[in-house]
Amino acid sequence: MTDNPVTITSVTSQYTTQVAQDLELNNKEQERIGAELSALQAQLKILQDDQSVLHSIQKTLDSRPASTPSTPEPSTSLPQQASGKNTTARRAPSKKAAAKATSTKKTTVQAKKDKTQGTEPKAATASAQPTLIALIRTHLDQQKEPRSAAEVTSALTEAHPQRTIKTTVVRTTLENLVAKSQAHRSKQGASVLYTSAAVQAAPQKAPAPALPRPEQDSSKREKAGAVSS
User: Fold this and answer.
1) With contact defined as beta carbons under 8 Å apart, do 152 and 165 qualify?
2) In 3D, which of 39, 28, 64, 54 has the Cα closest to residue 149?
3) How many CB atoms lie within 10 A of CB 51?
4) CA angle 112, 115, 119 (to 5 degrees)
5) Which residues pair with 187 in a beta bridge?
6) Which of 29, 81, 82, 215 is 20 to 30 A off residue 14, Cα-Cα?
7) What residues are paired with 186 via a beta bridge?
8) Residue 152: how many CB atoms within 10 A of its CB?
């Protein structure tokens, strides 16, 4: 018994559509993972730079000379003049070593201070800026019509010119919001549009039913009485 050609064509069409959808999802997943990988590499670079600075400070601390202990003056029967010369000769290196240790300590403390002052404003600036996902979610909540990834990127770039926002990263973030049911995706031809879940879930207010006026009710009662009589 031969297979129906129409059935074979329908099954082939279904498989073709399914494969195309799977390929699209695969490409989007690769873009998402690539964006996350780039962010992790940037964080790793910052940690490596901090590690280099800390190693330099540690080497400076390890190479700091210990304070020279005071040498007790020997009790000898030498003349006072000769004893004074020996004492001066022994104390001179001690002062130089103390001065060198003090200078090294000040340099180390200043390096730590500079490192702290340079890191705190950078951390404060990074924490003050909202994340990209927060910016995208806020932008979608303010829109009543669906928006494409390119439109969202253009709007955010115009609103935040100091930030570098790429369309691929925005599209990946939008797909993550769709996966978390925080946004909805739709298609218009070849374009993929996104809508905020909060905006789409907002109920449409139905018009309130018109209440009958008292004059109309009284006229209706009068007509009903006239008909019954």
Assistant:
1) no
2) 28
3) 10
4) 140
5) 192
6) 29
7) 193
8) 22
CA triple 119-121-125, angle to 5 deg: 115
Q: Residue 135: which domain range? A: 130-202
Burial pattern 14-43, b for ≥16 Cβ within 10 A else e, equals: eeeeeeeeeeeeeebeeebeebeeeeeeee
Given the structure tokens 């700091």, which residue do they identify? 64
Integer Cα distance of 169 and 144 in angstroms: 23
Q: Please indicate, yes or no, if residue 186 is contained in any of the structural domains.
A: yes
Burial 122-137 (b: 16+ CB within 10 A, else e): eeeeeeeeeebeebbb
* 175-210 pLDDT tens trace: 999 999 989 999 988 889 999 988 766 654 445 555
Structure-block tokens of residue 103: 């200078």
Residue 137, domain CATH: 1.10.10.10
Confirm whether 164 is domain-assigned. Answer: yes
CA 211, 214, 215, 216: dihedral to nearest 10 degrees? Answer: 40
Which is more confident, 53 or 2?
Answer: 53
**What is the rounded distance in angstroms from the CA atom of residue 153 to the CA atom of residue 49?**
31
Query: Number of H helices and number of E strands within the chain?
Result: 7, 3
Count of domains in the chain?
Answer: 1
Whether the predicted model's global pTM rises above the 0.85 cut: no
Is 53 part of a structural domain of the chain?
no
